[in-house]
Each structure stands twice: as structure tokens, then as C-alpha cells.
Specification:
- The chain is mostly beta strands.
- The protein has two domains: 14-210; 219-293, Macroglobulin (MG2) domain (Immunoglobulin-like), CATH 2.60.40.1930.
- It contains two helices and 23 strands.
- The strands form five sheets. Strands 6-5-4-3-2-1-14-15 form an eight-stranded antiparallel beta sheet, with no helix packed on it. Strands 7-8-9-11-12 form a five-stranded antiparallel beta sheet, with no helix packed on it.
- A hairpin with a 3-residue loop joins β11 and β12 (166-167).
- The radius of gyration is 22 Å and the shape is elongated.
Length: 297
């Protein structure tokens, strides 16, 4: 009986130990981070694998996401990842579902179904096609690379992915309508691969124009960016703001006064489904954000 117990423990431990070659505890990613307003301010999003946990019998990594300025990534603070036989899955805990993020076993021409989470409220999926395959040497490790190509209107996941590291654009699929974006791997490090700098910046935690960045980008906010009938616009300044709404052809739909230090509901139920732009001028800078009208969410 004891022998059977020890054999069982051995096989379980072997299975768990081989499951952590992706995102082992201590892994750190730095991604370049920019705001949609296009004023050339950049900081970074930092992701770290902080612990292991077990979900539905699978040993998973808990990765924590934070932004240098604020947690403005559009992702939950913690995400759960499971690695098995060359594939990386994310656990979407609001839906009790595992969704594929990377398949490092794929070959040229293969189609991969990837899952993403829209504003943490909608579970979506889309296809990417492997255009090409290569290899990169990092600290003596020959790691497979795959170029993803996708044609989704609302998702951005066309990028090169690196075995044991993940995406070089971002670690997770990015929803197109985010007010800000992560757009390139700066650095990666772990106890297995070692330290890797992509050359995007000299140091992982570089911040450009951070003082101006904070001052210019917080004067108004819109919630939700994905809406059905109405949006809530909050003015964070001491003066009234005028907001304009345009469609994709830049035809103006309307203008709305947003009172100082107040939130204003705007009824947009009459709009057809599609992508729209909001524009607000605070006297010093014009800020533009994308919103999506959809009656199906």
C-alpha cells in the first residue's frame, strides 16, 4: 500500500513539474504601453508570475498585471495560466472555462482558435493562422518562434510568439477598442531562459514624458467603451467640457456638454451598431477615444 502511494505521488509530481516550463514562478515580462490619444507618452505594463495554484486538478501559474501609471491594462489584476504539451491555456474564472492562448506545437498553415475576454464581461474567440516558423537563440536556448496572422475586426493578436516566453506584442490578445494599448515586448526574465531584452528600450522600466502624461490624460473618462444604449462620461476637471461623437467616416453625430466635476449619461440607443469616436478638447489638448455600439452583448 505504501509503495502504491509513493508511486502515485511520484507520477503526480512529475506531471506537475513538467507543467511549469511556461510562466514559472518568478517570471517577469515588461511590455511597452501607450495611450490611444497619441501624444507619444510611453510607460510599461509589468507582468509577474507570483505563485502556483491548482484549478480543476491542474497546476497553474498566477500572473499579476500592473501598469506603471495605473492599472489601466483592461485586464484583471491576476490571470491563471496552465501549460500542457506545448500549449498554454488561460482560465477565465468568470465563465469557468479554459481558453487556448498559445500553441507552440503548431506548424505553418495551421489555424488556432484563441480565446479573449472583452472588458472582463464577454468571452470571445477568434482564429489566428501560423504564417511562418523560425527559431531564436536566447542565452543558449533555441526557442521556436511562430508568426500569427489574424483577421478579426475586434482583436489584435497578429504577432510573433516565442516558445516559453509568449507574445512579442502582448502576452494576451488585446481588444481593439481599449483606450490604451500594450504594443511590444521590452524584456523577459525567468530562472530557465534567463534575461532577454528585445531592444525596444534600453531599460525595462523606461518611462517617457511621465509628468505630462499624467496631467494630460486624466481629464475625462468614458464607461463602458463597449455599450448598448448609453455611456457615462465623467469630467475630472473644474471646467465644463464639450464632447463630440463621430462615426468611422468622421461624420459628426452630436455634441454634448459635460459639466465640471460631474458624470453625464448620454443616450446613444438610436445609433447603428459600429465603431465611433469621441473627441474632447480641454483647451490644451484634444483627446480622442474609440467606443463600440453593439446591441448583441
Amino acid at each position: 500500500m505504501k509503495k502504491l502511494f509513493f508511486l502515485l505521488c511520484f507520477f503526480v509530481c512529475v506531471k506537475f513539474s513538467t507543467a511549469q516550463t511556461f510562466a514559472p514562478v518568478g517570471s517577469i515580462w515588461y511590455y511597452n504601453h501607450e495611450w490611444f490619444s497619441g501624444n507619444n507618452n510611453e510607460d510599461y505594463t509589468r507582468i509577474e508570475s507570483i505563485a502556483d495554484t491548482i484549478i480543476e486538478g491542474r497546476l497553474c501559474s498566477i500572473v499579476h498585471i500592473e501598469n506603471a501609471y495605473q492599472n489601466a491594462t483592461g485586464f484583471p489584476d491576476s490571470i491563471y495560466l496552465f501549460y500542457d504539451s506545448g500549449k498554454v491555456y488561460r482560465y477565465f474564472n468568470d465563465f469557468n472555462k479554459w481558453g487556448l492562448q498559445f500553441d507552440f506545437t503548431a506548424e505553418i498553415g495551421d489555424t488556432i482558435l484563441i480565446y479573449g475576454n472583452v472588458y472582463n464581461s464577454i468571452l470571445d474567440s477568434f482564429n489566428v493562422i501560423v504564417d511562418s516558423i523560425g527559431y531564436i537563440d536566447i542565452n543558449g536556448h533555441s526557442l521556436k518562434t511562430l508568426n500569427y496572422n489574424e483577421s478579426s475586426l475586434y482583436w489584435e493578436d497578429a504577432q510573433k510568439v516565442i516558445e516559453e516566453i509568449g507574445g512579442t506584442f502582448f502576452l494576451f490578445p488585446t481588444y481593439t477598442l481599449a483606450e490604451n494599448t500594450n504594443d511590444g515586448l521590452r524584456c523577459y526574465s525567468d530562472s530557465l531562459v534567463g534575461y532577454y531584452n528585445s531592444g525596444l528600450v534600453q531599460t525595462c522600466d523606461t518611462v517617457i514624458n511621465s509628468v505630462e502624461y499624467v496631467g494630460n490624460l486624466t481629464y475625462y473618462s468614458i464607461y463602458p467603451a463597449l455599450f448598448d444604449k448609453e455611456i457615462l462620461v465623467t469630467n475630472h476637471t473644474n471646467k465644463d467640457l464639450l464632447m463630440q461623437i463621430f462615426n468611422e467616416t468622421l461624420s459628426k453625430y452630436g455634441e454634448y456638454n459635460i459639466n465640471a466635476n460631474q458624470s453625464t449619461k448620454i443616450d446613444l440607443e438610436i445609433l447603428p451598431d459600429g465603431i465611433y469616436f469621441t473627441a474632447v478638447n480641454n483647451g490644451n489638448q484634444r483627446n480622442i477615444q474609440k467606443i463600440l455600439k453593439t446591441s448583441t452583448h
